[in-house]
Amino acid sequence: MLKRMILLGLAGTALWGQSGDFRTTLYPILEKANCRACHNSEGVASATRLHFPEPDAEPNKIAAFGNSLVILVDRQQPDESLLLRKPTARTPHTGGERIKQNSPEEAVLKAWIARLAQLSGPELAAALKYRELENAGSGGVVQDGELRRLTHSQYNHTVRDLLGDQTSPALQFPTEDFVNGFLNQSRGQSLSPLLIEAYSNAAEKLARSAFRGGDTHGLISCKPSPACGRQFVREFGRKAFRRPLDPVEQQRYESLFARDPDFMKGAQLVVEAMLQSPNFLFWLNTTSDPKLKLKAWATASRLSYSVWDTMPDGELFAAAERGELATRRGVEKQVQRMLADPRAHESLDEFVSQWLRFDRLTTASKDRRKFPYFTRETANAMTTEARTFVSDLVWNDGNFMDLFTANYGYVSPELARIYGVNAPAKDFEKVAFPANSERAGILGQGLFLALTAKPDDSSPTARGLFVREQFLCQHVPDPPPGVNTNLPPVTEAKPQTNRDRMSEHTTNASCATCHKLMDGVGFGLEKFDAVGARREQFELQFRQKPKDGKEEDEDHPLPRRIVALPLNTQAYVAGVPNSEFTSPAQLGAILATSSLCQECVVKQYFRFQAGRSDTLADQPLIRRATDDFRNSGFHFKALILSLVVLREFPEEIQRQDVANNHKSH
Description:
- The chain is mostly helical.
- It contains 29 helices and six strands.
- The longest helix has 20 residues, at 376-395.
């Protein structure tokens, strides 16, 4: 009965006084104040007790949400309620003043608080239960799609393992788009005409290459004969489609094979056709098959593309056939075996390169006059350092949160110059950062500092945004339409640091809230320039007028007057208690111990593994995986195992939650 009241949202209950209906009175005010931007599962206020329902939520759920705000009401002194004091900025509020004091909007808010202060009986119980059910994922829907298209990296790895082909044909395919921070998200996996054509061309070349000079890759396991042709179709089809062929498919490809009397050419026709089939280009993620005949094969593909970024091997196929993937023990055994295979390193590299956005750096340009030593080789060295750094933490069972605190890097001659250290005898050996460098972890490395900068200078906003989105999983809203994002120009008469110029962000009401979230973080990293080199002062260069009237060119630069300004790197992470810092090392220490950051690491890997954003229904799984991650000492291999197993056996989460509830009562 109680759950029914919650789901109905008490919509039919008579409202008190003049407060009116929440959905038509206070809710539009909160929406107009843009409270949702921070108070959602990915917002800056995600750790608070106030989470808005989905934008398209049913009226009943909105009504239930309105009643659940009772947890923010002081029932003895309503005017002291956080629900009133926070949005009106009477109490310090990261979002600033969202509802003006003594305004008509505040009057509506106060009326609703008065109503909530008088809730009692079943109404109060239902209101208090709402958030508990939300945290448990009630009402949310797991959105795993039945099919997932091969990403370009999965395509390359799959044709390598299927055909022995090392040419990486997908490098020539149309570029993939980042969606939700990754390239493998289901929302971005449409098939364009260009991609379909690329698949066709690749299939033709791969099939021709596979049998050039005979069966050089060992694709045929029998002596050529009609029976061998049928066997080849069955065996190759099972690998290519990651499941057994059904009788109709078997007959279709046997007929295609028989079109050419030359055995190898018939096999080539089959390979070319199968490589263009949706059954190859899409892998089975889940199955709605009522007889569950394909469930084990879907599990095998899910494991292999999650852990290896490629197709299942013979042992995984055999485990599927034996029914071992239906048990937790069987899945754990396979995942542990797979983690010891080099292919797991390839999958991790894909995750790291996308999570840390290597692409932004490899396509970035820097001012050649200011940074002549920043070249393509420098950018590649930065990505190699980050990849080596993360791989060492993962595969040598380090504490993964050292990602933010480690006092060393993996240095090449190009990086040694930027870091102010001696180049090691061998490229990318571990080198300790000088004690006074204020560098630590990924935040002190060239990759992060350079990819979050402009061509000619650092960017506090970009750096703060990256920390928010990649390391705290907090989405910062886009700027309002029509807002001028240009900063005032720097003049020789009025030289200013970035911090001084960006003061406009804090005085303009339409900019202040979001920029406080980003700039407040980025200012603490200002001792590092656009390529990650340390600087003690902020230098501005002003071109001097030529005496002979000649224009400047690359070979004849005009002299510059340099103005050096002191740097103020006092910063903090709004929304995170005790988060003041002045350097990457100090910020790294804050992130490493932040529960928000620790959970964000889990969320990011979940999104990569699942190919979609996390939803309300996934929160119990993510919390359980985060607990497993912490209990392991933040070993990333333990996180991989935990997430894979929990996704395969979600009912274990429910059983544990029930057990915990019994203990708490």
